[in-house]
Design brief:
This protein is of the alpha+beta class. The protein has helices at about 20-30, 75, 85-90, 100-115, 120-125, 135-150, 165-170; strands at about 1-5, 10-15, 45-50, 55, 70. One of its GO terms (molecular function) is 2 iron, 2 sulfur cluster binding.
């Protein structure tokens, strides 16, 4: 069994140690916020934070993650209040959203080390492929998140956290078998 800490909780995976961390997170731990993009490490959609470093989870096996601390988008903040998440929304740097979790994780890892990165440092830390082309807004969002992290700015409100599990259960309409 492979043991690691995921989002602050100890986890044991009873699967092949050569399994990519991405698949262990998505399929065994049901943490589907980490996205499968290319499977070769080129798109960076699967980025998570491992011991403070932004890593592509498709390139890390669970054996390599043994004993390490992994943070996924679900562990960044439960209510989307992390400065990176707030700034991505405030700067309209989210379009389709597929690459967003990986970008948020890479940005959070960067800001944890340097809360005032240059544009060049931001671009180097975010080599993600974004089909929507929001790159200028991503730079602005990371700069803004840095200002929030340094307490030089506030964002007026966290984005709406969505529908609660209880509300979602009530919102599902009954199926009419006769159509």
């Amino acid at each position: 069994m492979t043991a690691l800490t995921v989002n602050g909780r100890p986890v044991r995976f009873d699967i092949d140690p050569d399994t990519p961390l991405l698949h262990a997170l998505r399929e065994a731990a049901n943490l589907t916020g980490t996205k499968y993009g290319c499977g070769t490490g080129d798109c960076h959609a699967c980025t998570v934070i491992v011991d403070g470093e932004a890593l592509r989870s498709c390139l890390v096996t669970i054996a390599e993650a043994e004993g390490r601390y992994v943070t996924t988008i679900e562990g960044l903040s439960r209510d989307r209040s992390h400065p990176v998440q707030q700034a991505l929304v405030a700067e309209a740097a989210i379009q389709c959203g597929f690459c967003t979790p990986g970008i948020a994780m890479a940005a959070a890892a960067l800001l944890a080390k340097n809360a005032d990165p240059s544009e060049a440092e931001i671009k180097a830390a975010l080599p993600h492929l974004c089909r929507c082309g929001v790159y200028p807004r991503l730079v602005r969002a990371v700069q803004r998140a840095g200002r929030v992290a340094r307490r030089a700015e506030t964002i007026s409100a966290a984005p709406a956290p969505g529908i609660s599990a209880d509300d979602a259960a009530r919102a599902v309409p009954a199926m009419d078998p006769d159509g």
